[in-house]
Amino acid sequence: MQKVFFTALPFFAIVFIGFLAGLRYHISKTIIPDFNKYILYYALPFMLFGFSSQWDLQDIFSWPIFITYLTSSLMLLGCTYSLGLLSNIPLKQTSFLSLVSCFPNTGFIGLVLISSLLGPKALGPVMLSILIDTFITSSICLYLALRDDGSIFDVFKGLYKNPMIWGFALGLAVSYFNLALPQPITLVVGLLGGAATPCALFVIGLILAPSKPIKTLKWRIQGIDVILALFCKLFLHPCLILAIGLSLIHFGVDLPSENLIPLILAAALPSAANVVMLAQQFNADSEQVSRIVMYSTLVALLSFTAWGGLILSN
Predict the structure, then answer these.
(1) HSE of 114, CA atoms in CB hemisphere, 13 A
(2) Is the pTM above the cut of 0.85?
(3) Where does 39-162 have alpha helices with state H?
(4) 307 lies in which domain range?
(5) What does the alpha-carbon distance between residue 229 and residue 231 come to, in Å, rounded to a whole number?
């Protein structure tokens, strides 16, 4: 457990540094929307492009992993979406609250953190989870969020505007066709993609810093408890993957533990920061989404350490 804690600590230290920068007013919060645009439209797509272009899809894809992760995400998505509807939250906002409850911060934190814990061979299942979150889970939520705003054409136009999909798809195309990129382009991809994780974590810290003295923490958002959202993301999601994975193994499905463990750890990560950026892009209430991302990031240092210690010790 100590190894897990000290491996995860540097990522959360960057969040704390961003918090201090915002608390001391060294950096104005007015730049956060521009920071988010840079991460969403430039750094994150280049990071996904860089990772996906180095992997063969055949090395990433596995039906047992695909079924395990997708089933858990859809179950969690359906649960949180139904809860939002029962709470009379607008459909668009319900969609993004559902997405932030089941979309882990695998890109910004998980790839480096899990590879540091388990080695580079563990990245295959993690990459597949990113592929599912990027192409399937987020697309379903964007469809649910945009379907009342216009025609089906408008919905697909919204999906088309998702830069994560383009970055991942272009990287897979480069890998599939064995294209060799010129060294200057590779360097640009590495520099921009490498900025995604520290910038995203720093921005989370900036958002966490209060603009004025805090008297009370807002633990409720339009009928959905933040605590419930944290429970779904940090506890229920990895539990679902563990239960589904063990069930498949029980029925004779070939799902090695070295593939199931990184998937559980990926699900135990805090909510993805890019969901906040998507909510801003599609004019949803990003403040509610960002609150879940912030609190899940704070709690995850302890919860992820607990999951890592529990899984790796057994």
Answers:
(1) 31
(2) no
(3) 44-53, 57-60, 63-86, 91-102, 111-118, 123-132, 138-146, 152-160
(4) 2-206+216-313
(5) 5
